Amino acid sequence: MTKKDQQDKERAMIIAYPLNDALYLNITNRCTNNCRFCIRETAGGVGYNLWLKQEPTAEEIIAFIGEPTRYREIVFCGYGEPLMRPEVVVEVSRYLKNYPVRVRLNTNGLADLFLGYDILPQLEGLIDVISISLNAGDAQSYQELTGTGFGTAAFDGVLNFIRRSKQVFPKVIASVVRYPGVDIEKAASLANALGVEFRVREFSE
User: Fold this and answer.
1) What are the residues whose beta carbons fall under 8 Å from the beta carbon of 55, sequence distance 6 or more?
2) In the chain, domain spans
3) In this structure, what is the dihedral angle of CA atoms 51, 54, 57, 58, given to the nearest 10 degrees?
4) What is the pTM of this model?
5) Can you give 27-73 as a three-state secondary structure string?
6) What distance in Å separates the CA atoms of residue 53 and residue 46, rounded to the nearest whole number?
7) What is the pLDDT of residues 2-42, one digit of tens each?
8) How far apart (Å, rounded) are the C-alpha atoms in residues 60 and 62?
9) Which CATH number is associated with domain 3-202?
10) N or C: which end of the chain has fewer CB atoms below 10 A?
C-alpha cells in the first residue's frame, strides 16, 4: 500500500465508518449543542478518530461510501450535527436513493433555529428514518443537559420539528440518552403523546 493509499484509507475511515451492518457518515464536527453526554467528549468515542481536518464534499462522501448495498442502512451521524450542512445531506441522500438501501438521519431537531428555514420539504422522499434527539422530558432539563445557545426556544423547537417530521418521513424516532438527570419515563410519555417511536441510547463513558 502506498503512502497515498494509506492516507486515503485513514481519511475514508473518518468520513465513513462502519458499525455492525451499517455505514455512518461523518460530514461535520460542528454542532449547536454542548451535551453533557455527547460521545465526542468521551475518551473512546466510537472507536474511530472522527475529528475532521476539513469537511468533506458530497462527491468525497459518495466516493467513500463505495457500494451502498453492502450495508443494511447508511446513517448521517458523526461528531457533529448533519443538518449544519443541509445541501450535502440532500445531495448524498439523492444519490443513495438510486440503491435499495435504507437512509437514516440522526439530528438534534434544531434545524429550524440554526438554518432559519424549514429544511424538511427538501428531505422528503430522500430519508427513510429520522432519529431526533429529544434528550429530555421538559424544557428546563433540556437546557441543562444540552447547553444549547437557543435557550428556552430550543425544546419547543425540537417538539415542533418532531411533529412536522411525522408528515414527511416514513419513520420518526425520538431518542434520549440514559444519563443522570434524564427522566426516561417522562420523555417516553412525551414521545408517545407526539405519536412517534421512542428509543433509549446507552451512555458510553
Assistant:
1) 27, 28, 29, 85
2) 3-202
3) 10
4) 0.88
5) CCCCCCCCCCCCHHHCCCCCCCCCCCCCCCCHHHHHHHHCCHHHCCE
6) 18
7) 665 555 555 555 898 898 899 999 999 888 877 766 665 54
8) 5
9) 3.20.20.70
10) C
